[in-house]
Amino acid sequence: MEFRIDSGVLTEAVAWAARVLPARSPVPVLGGLLLEARDGRLRVSGLDYEASARIEVEADTVREGRALVLGRRLLDICKVLPGGRVACGVEGARLSVTGGDARFGLSLLPLDDYPAQPGLPAFRGVVDAAAFAAAVGQVAVAAGRDDSLPVLTGVRLALDGTTMTLAATDRYRYAVRTLEWKPEAEEGSEAAEGIDVVVPARRLTEIARSLSGAGPVRLALDGGSIGFESDGVRTTTRLLDGRLPRHDKLFALGEHAVAVTERAPLVEAVKRVAVVAEGDSPVQLAFTGDAVHLQAGYEDDVASQRLAATLTGAESMTVAFNPGYLLDALGSFTTGAVAFHLLGPGQRALLTDGEGETYRHLLMSVKPLV
After folding, report:
1. Helix (H) or strand (E) holding 205
2. Which among 71, 109, 142, 366 could bridge 168 via Cys, Cβ 3.0 to 4.6 Å?
3. Please, what is the average pLDDT of the chain?
4. What global pTM score does this model have?
């Protein structure tokens, strides 16, 4: 195998495929990237037992062939290559990489031991990559981090007609976002209607970010895995077993008060007063008709700030939140204002952008400061 390629193109391709490589693996070949050169194209593939990634880019093929090398070592080399054209080729038991006056040699891994790249599951439709990435970023902040409860570390992806619903919860907060997508089931495959699966949040976030500029992305899905494909790139990841708890009843608040304030000043105020909040100490928000008074800390170490706000449905309302959870929630919105739908102290509170219900973030309030 031998090919010529721009160093920047090679670096981007290797970095994209290397995202799925395991940090540690008892199977050495799973740390490898498969390079395949033929017909003026270079294909770079990586996989572990949970995910796979493949990308194709243009390259001048001098001699067709395949090579398997340690992926992270190849990525380290690509990052320090000089700009311009790079020559890569198999020489005996090594892959040589030459750029300018720099030359590197990488030991080859045994091709016979490398597993076959999984194929894409059934094609279901198309979603805009930028909108999908933004939606995943909003809900993923609420996903759990405790691997002892695997299903809570995932993002629910449900398809109903032309609406896609993404949701995540760690039992203390619950984020839900809906967006439009275009179902287009392949001939002979079942329609996407009623599909409801859980995708690992970390993997889905990485995939969504990497595809954010790709325009329309093909979505493929079956009972065990989900895949995405767009213009020379393809990636898959396994689904999580189980289902997330439903959010419908949690989000139905009934009669409640609504407080609205500007989001950016509130974020800065929460950060400011939270410097005196130790451990699980909350930040208190006391809403009145035209203001919100923030307070944190106890006894001598206290902080407070007043911001403009409006409150309807009650004369006053005081709630308190874990400052980290509150900042995560506020940071996931992109609008200028945020609306708090409040039942009362120690009860659930629903945050919206005040302009619709495409994105909602539920937080459990805690006991206010004494």
Report:
1. helix 201-210
2. 142
3. 93
4. 0.90
